[in-house]
Design brief:
Structural class: alpha/beta
Shape: globular
Number of strands: 7
Number of helices: 9
Strand order of the largest sheet: 3-2-1-4-5-7-6
Radius of gyration: 17 Å
Strand content: 15-25%
Distance between the termini: 29 Å
CATH architecture: 3-Layer(aba) Sandwich
Largest sheet: 7 strands, mixed
CATH superfamily: Vaccinia Virus protein VP39
Oligomer: single chain
Length: 231
């Protein structure tokens, strides 16, 4: 981990010690909606893909969903935190998943000698150096390849903001007592989501790097968004 990078320091502060409970928590805290979002990500992957890169793969939720949907596709999962990657590796061994390769690396630093049909990520964008990441992913995509990034968004409408704030306040008051390892995230994530401008920043970075057919799709009452662009 690069010392002094506030993005990486934030990731470390939020997620240290949470790997074992991550799969449960991401489903619990989103009331199962994360599963819908992951299905949408998989649905958007070109069906004839033979190589897919999943950045910030965590414990492999998206990675294995892609691998299961496309068994003839080679899926590379890249993750910054070894704590999370070890859990993903245990799943590969337990379920004998043969079309997944896992790599310990920061998303912005990963390089591949073989190009990909599609590069995906979920919950990475708000932590990433998007200009650097976009430049790097373009180098690794095949001509016509798809970059797909998904993350939380702050709702634009007043009544949705009220619901959003009530939801996080509940997590802070109740969730942090039940799951103390997640306290940093419960209290820190709302401000990060409200402050981040990852959607317009990614759209701008995609345009600057020559991506075409840039699309923004908001999901579940503006709870998150998927941004895509083609090389």
């Amino acid at each position: 981990m690069d010392k002094g990078d506030p993005r990486l320091e934030l990731v470390h502060r939020f997620f240290s010690g949470t790997g074992r409970s991550y799969d449960f928590m991401v489903n619990f805290a989103t009331f199962g909606i994360d599963r819908r979002w992951k299905r949408r990500i998989v649905d958007l992957i070109p069906p004839n893909s033979t190589r897919v890169l999943d950045l910030a793969c965590g414990t492999g939720i998206s990675t294995f969903a892609i691998a299961n949907r496309y068994p003839n596709c080679h899926v590379v999962g890249v993750e910054l935190r070894d704590e999370y990657l070890q859990i993903a590796r245990q799943k590969v061994h337990k379920f004998r998943i043969r079309n997944v390769e896992l790599v310990l690396c920061r998303a912005e630093d990963y390089q591949s000698g073989e190009p990909f049909d599609c590069i995906t990520s979920s919950y990475l964008a708000k932590y990433a150096d998007l200009k650097r990441l976009t430049r790097n992913t373009k180098k690794m995509l095949k001509k016509g390849g798809l970059l797909l990034m998904h993350d939380f968004t702050y709702p634009p409408k007043a009544y949705l903001v009220w619901i959003w704030r009530f939801y996080f306040k509940t997590l802070q008051l109740i969730g942090s007592r039940l799951f103390p390892a997640w306290r940093e995230i419960y209290y820190g994530l709302p401000a990060l989501i409200q402050e981040t401008r990852w959607v317009p920043e990614l759209k701008e970075a995609l345009g600057e790097n020559g991506f075409k057919d840039i699309q923004i799709e908001y999901l579940m009452a503006y709870g998150s968004a998927v941004v895509t662009g083609r090389k």
